[in-house]
Specification:
Elements (H helix, E strand, L loop, with lengths): L9 E3 L6 H8 L3 E3 H4 L11 E4 L15 E4 L5 H4 L10 E3 L3 H19 L2 H9 L16 E5 L3 H12 L3 E6 L8 E5 L4 H6 L3 E4 L13 H6 L4 E5 L8 H9 L3 E6 L19 E3 L9 H17 L14
Parallel strand pairs: 1-2, 1-3, 3-4, 4-5, 6-7, 6-9, 7-8, 9-10, 10-11, 11-12
Helix pairs in contact: 4-6
The chain binds NADPH dihydro-nicotinamide-adenine-dinucleotide phosphate and oxalic acid.
Oxalic acid binds next to loops.
C-alpha cells in the first residue's frame, strides 16, 4: 500500500478510539497498524512514528524512520526497548491540559487526605454522623514533589493555592516562588524529612528506577503518605506494602504500577490504606495530540527544529 507521492508517511500505533484522529490528520498517507493490520503498510515507507509504548524491536523494523513523536509526556515506553534506534530524535508531548489534569489529580488527593475524606466515606457507609476536627490547617501540611519538571511546577502552583507548604526535588535547583527547592542525591534525605505527603512525578530512567524503596520510605516522617503518578517502575511494591503494613506510612495513592493493568490478585486493590486508579492521572487529549503531531510533521518537513526533544543521554 503506497502513500501519496512526495508526502510523508506517518504510522500510528494506537488503540481503537484514535482511528478517527489518524484519518482526520493525514488522510490516506497515515496508517494505524491497529486499524489496518501490519499487512496494510510497507515498513520501508514509514517516515514518522506516533505512539506511546510500541512493542520492543518494532521501531527497528522501520528503516526509513526519521523521527518519533511520543503521545505521552514520559518516553520510557520507547527508551526501554533494547533495540531502540538511538540515532533518531524523540519528541515528547508537553501539553498544558495534561499538566493541569495531573495537578488536579494530585491536589484532589492531597485534599482528600488532608480533609480525612476517606473516614467520612466509611462513616457514611455505616450511616454514622461523626464529626472530626482537621488534624492541622493546610498551611502546616508539607507536600514534597519528587520531579519538579513541567508537571511538577504546575502542580506546585495549584497546591500553593490551597495553602499547602510545597517542597520540590529535582536534579537541578529550581527557583519557584514559595517553593523550597532541593537538588541532587545529597539533598534527598533533607527533602524526604520535609514531606507529610510525597508525590512522585519523575520520569522513569535508569537513575530513577526503583527509587521508591525501603530506604526512601524510611526517610519519610512517620505517618507520611506516598502518591505515585510517575511510573510503576519507580516503586518497589513489596517495600511499599511493608512500609504501609508496619504503619510507618499513613497511606498511598497509586496511579501507576509495575504491571499494568494491575493484576486482579494484587494486594493493592483491597488494601485499606491504598487508593488505586488505572493510570488516569493525566490522559492525553486526542485533539491536542493531533495538533502536536501536525506541528511535528510540519516542522520536520520544513526543516524547522522540533520543540521538546528528549535528551537520550539523560533519558527524559
Ligand atoms: P519533565 O522532564 O518536565 O520533568 C522531570 C523532572 O524530574 C525534572 O525536574 C528533572 O530534574 C527531574 N529528574 C529527572 N531525573 C532525576 C534524577 N535522577 N534526580 C532528580 N531529579 C530528576 O517531565 P514531566 O514533568 O513532563 O513528566 C514527568 C513524568 O510524569 C513523566 O515522565 C511520566 O512518567 C509521568 N506522567 C504520568 C502520567 C499519568 O497519567 N500518571 C501522565 C503524564 C506524565 P531537572 O529539572 O533538574 O532536569
Ligand atoms: C504520559 C502518561 O507519560 O500518560 O503522558 O503516562
Amino acid at each position: 500500500m503506497a502513500g501519496q507521492e512526495g508526502k510523508p508517511n506517518v504510522l500510528f500505533l494506537l488503540p481503537p478510539g484514535w482511528d478517527a484522529l489518524s484519518k482526520a490528520l493525514f488522510g490516506h498517507q497515515a496508517f494505524n497498524s491497529f486499524l489496518h493490520g501490519k499487512d496494510h503498510y510497507a515498513p520501508q515507507q514509514i517516515d514518522y512514528f506516533v505512539g506511546f509504548r510500541p512493542p520492543h524491536g518494532f521501531l527497528k523494523s522501520l528503516p526509513r524512520l526519521k523521527a518519533i513523536f511520543s503521545l505521552g509526556a514520559g518516553v520510557d515506553g520507547f527508551l526501554r526497548d533494547p533495540e531502540f534506534p538511538r540515532h533518531l530524535p524523540v519528541v515528547r508531548f508537553v501539553d498544558e491540559t495534561l499538566q493541569r489534569e495531573m495537578a488536579q489529580y494530585v491536589t484532589m488527593h492531597a485534599l482528600i487526605i488532608h480533609r480525612q475524606q476517606r473516614a467520612f466515606d466509611a462513616a457514611q457507609r455505616e450511616s454514622t454522623w461523626k464529626q472530626r476536627m482537621l488534624a492541622r490547617p493546610s498551611r502546616d501540611v508539607r507536600i514534597g514533589i519528587l520531579g519538579m519538571g513541567d508537571i511538577g511546577a504546575v502542580t506546585a502552583e495549584r497546591l500553593l493555592m490551597f495553602d499547602f507548604q510545597v517542597f520540590g526535588w529535582s536534579r537541578s535547583r529550581k527557583t519557584v516562588p514559595d517553593v523550597t527547592s532541593f537538588a541532587g542525591a545529597e539533598e534527598l534525605p533533607q527533602f524526604l524529612a520535609s514531606c507529610d505527603i510525597m508525590v512522585c512525578m519523575l520520569p522513569l530512567t535508569p537513575e530513577t528506577e526503583n527509587i521508591l524503596d525501603a530506604k526512601l520510605f524510611a526517610g519519610l516522617p512517620q505517618g507520611a503518605w506516598v502518591m505515585n503518578v510517575g511510573r510503576g517502575g519507580h516503586c518497589k511494591e513489596d517495600d511499599l506494602l511493608a512500609a504501609l503494613n508496619s504503619d510507618h506510612l499513613g497511606g498511598a495513592v497509586l496511579d501507576v504500577f509495575q504491571t499494568e493493568p494491575l493484576p486482579a490478585d494484587s494486594p493493592f486493590w483491597k488494601h485499606p490504606k491504598v487508593t488505586v486508579t488505572p493510570h488516569i492521572a493525566g490522559i492525553t487529549d486526542p485533539r491536542n495530540a493531533s495538533a502536536f503531531v501536525v506541528d511535528c510533521v510540519t516542522r520536520a518537513q520544513s526543516g524547522a527544529p522540533f520543540k521538546n526533544v528528549v535528551d537520550l543521554t539523560r533519558g527524559y
